[in-house]
Amino acid sequence: MSDLAPSDLATIYPAPTPRVIAKARPEIDAHAKKFIGMSPFCVLATSGSDGSVDASPRGGNPGFVHVAGPNQLVMPDRSGNNRIDSFRNIVEGSGFVQLIFFVPGIDETLRVGGKGKLSVEPELMASMIEFGKPPRAVLHIDVREAYFHCGKALMRSKLWAAPQVERSVMPSIGEVIHDQTGLGERESQAEIYERYKTQL
């Protein structure tokens, strides 16, 4: 397989229409604000100082990411695996972030790009209690671009219409990690689910 050169791309893909270019907005408008307010899930992408890229799932109640202004988002950080790849990238790397927001039942997605910084300001964290706990930190995002993606990818995947896979067809994450590393316990899915309920 040979790599494509930049000049090859123009022979494969036609130029985007002016409308596609124009829909990349420099701020969170009323439509983007409404979409974010309905979203219980997004993916956060960051880049490290070594050029590595990380993408991390983030979730909460709908609207868990707060629109603090037309160019400001605020995202609480909840309990996770403590690798903090995303936050290390933000602190040590360029600070640039991209998010893609999903709303169950809507095929379109919203991409938001900007620059992030972290805060542990007590008053702010106290204002963002969810699942009975304050966040461990808060990510501020200075928004530079907001862009609605068409629904083709989710339509192709039938993401919202596809039947759910039975959880039992895949080993639990505890069993997977134990098989991969030999570390930890081979927890069943039921045990993990009960533990997760206390750690949200």
Automatic annotation (TrEMBL):
<feature type="domain" description="Pyridoxamine 5'-phosphate oxidase N-terminal">
    <location>
        <begin position="29"/>
        <end position="150"/>
    </location>
</feature>
<dbReference type="Pfam" id="PF01243">
    <property type="entry name" value="PNPOx_N"/>
</dbReference>
<dbReference type="InterPro" id="IPR012349">
    <property type="entry name" value="Split_barrel_FMN-bd"/>
</dbReference>
<dbReference type="InterPro" id="IPR024029">
    <property type="entry name" value="Pyridox_Oxase_FMN-dep"/>
</dbReference>
<dbReference type="InterPro" id="IPR011576">
    <property type="entry name" value="Pyridox_Oxase_N"/>
</dbReference>
<protein>
    <recommendedName>
        <fullName>Pyridoxamine 5'-phosphate oxidase N-terminal domain-containing protein</fullName>
    </recommendedName>
</protein>
